[in-house]
UniProtKB/TrEMBL annotation:
Source organism of this protein record: Limulus polyphemus
Keyword Cell membrane carried by entry: no
Protein name: IDLSRF-like peptide
Superkingdom, natural source: Eukaryota
First and last residue of the signal peptide: none
Keyword annotations of the record: Disulfide bond
PROSITE patterns found in the cross-reference section: LDLRA_1 (PS01209), LDLRA_2 (PS50068)
Gene symbol of the encoding locus: LOC106469241
Taxon lineage: Eukaryota, Metazoa, Ecdysozoa, Arthropoda, Chelicerata
Amino acid sequence: DNDRCHPTRPFRCPGDETICISIQYLCDGAPDCPDGYDEDHRLCTAAKRPPVEETANFLQTLLANHGPNYLEKLFGDKARDALEPLGGIQKVAVALSESETLEDFGIALHLMRTDLDHLRNVFRAVATDDVGMLKSLGIRDSELADVKFFLDKLVSTGFME
């Protein structure tokens, strides 16, 4: 099958031609795809983060377990109704995966400065283990582990830089 890549070169470059490269050549500083897509900053950021599907499933689980407005505590008023005003769970998951920094995330989802500052404070509270601040947002003890797990994954990949 000419449209499939060999297992040793599983990354297929976008385009009509079937050009496949090894994973080791992704985000290595040298373009290997004809259009340089293998060095695209969004791709390289996403490569460090959990897969979009995993993030979307996690967001869905948080909403299912804690209610459709739960993420408003993190993302602000635009996160009401299961993230619909932000474009829905999938769009938020993609933005979390592809946005290099918190600022980029705010731009991608058109967050207001107050919402972005709020989210930054939430990240800081998680990073410094400031449970008091998280509780002041209405995050219950039973929810703290989920929130910390979710945000720690982003912080560890440079989201706050």
